[in-house]
Amino acid sequence: MEDIVSEVSSSIVEGCRLSVKMRNTDDSRLAEILGIKDIKGQKYYYVHYIDFNKRLDDWVPEDYLDTRRVQYPTVDKDVVPATPSGMTSPKRTQPPSRCDSPDSAFGSSPLVNGPNVLQAALQKRKKRKLGGAMPEPEDTRSESGSPVPGAAPRTSGSLVSNHDDVVTRIRNIEMIELGKHRIKPWYFSPYPQELVNLPVTYICEFCLRYKKSARCLERHLQKCTLTHPPGNEIYRKNTISFFEIDGRKNKNYAQNLCLLAKLFLDHKTLYYDTDPFLFYVMTEFDSRGYHIVGYFSKEKESSEDYNVACILTLPPYQRKGYGKLLIEFSYELSKFEGKTGSPEKPLSDLGLLSYRSYWAQTICEILVGMKPGPEGERPQITIGEICEMTSIKKEDLLSTLQYLSLIQYYKGQYIICLSDEIVKQTNRAKERRRIRIDPSCLHWTPKDWPKRGKW
Fold first, then answer.
1. Which of 82, 165, 355, 383 has the greatest number of beta carbons closer than 10 A?
2. Chain-wide mean pLDDT for the chain?
């Protein structure tokens, strides 16, 4: 019996689907094998749990696999004779190794990694007409994040169709050390090949340069003069500061920031062409300097009125209100610009939760705070007035009201109805939210990028 199980295990190849135990739980879920590697005679499998976010993908040992029912990938019509277990598997050519040597997956072509990514991006930029962006259909992805058939990809901005390939489907960095935090990445990021498979990648928390050892980082810190992100500090209140970084003037920092962010963002495609973007980095100050908490980027010129391209709160600072603070700051900038804004779509699952929460709380705070008329009439406000007060785009505002079931049709017109429960929830959320953006602490003047001619 053990020989049969062993033979079935040896027949498992990349692309197979079977039940796999999830780490730190007793549950088993259907998963796809994305990679296989051998460490000291022990096989490990990189699995993606079907219908689960890719950040849960993991290397698991062989005993996590339930080999009783295996769905083999179909490559051609020829079928290998039945195995001793009674299963049949399709004949397939020897797949390229995805784990032991990523270079081999590309045959003789160079690995798209590190400097090669930069070169490819620069070549792509040359082919792209400046200012000739084609508008993208509103909904190019379903709510689950999968591409909608027939949807056209964006040709500008930070978002393009997310193409999985033999390298990018597998998380390549084991662990990063950023300041006092050690963080396990969620997704693939095209760091240089020499960092792949190291137990820890060390990153300077001020300039975001990456090093392969603690000793290399120590030598770097002796020479690094930064104690805060480069660029202009445009906001400071208590220990929270925001720095505006121009992707053209501070290209190295912007590229390193994109590499770091890609470890925790799956739905965005990394761009080394940072010239068209501004980066707003939120930091927390202490005696050692200004430590990065999160950031968002935005296009200098957006034909879609996007006020955010990518947004991220680093894992050690999540669930502390910093995500909403980043979102609130992006809308504060839109207020200074005198326009409404919206985040670039599609949002990640966590991004959608954060934005819905922010939109709901901001809108409900305005509605709950409205005073009745002089003779006790019901307060009145239009959708346009709410948009003007919050800088939230009309489409996002309406979708939030519908999501909260606050819009009702009554006597031939639409009205907004607030239940007692919504009022209580709004007041509770307002009390819990202790850190807010203070507009008086923002010292920033919007730039008219079209008139500036060059980025």
1. 355
2. 80
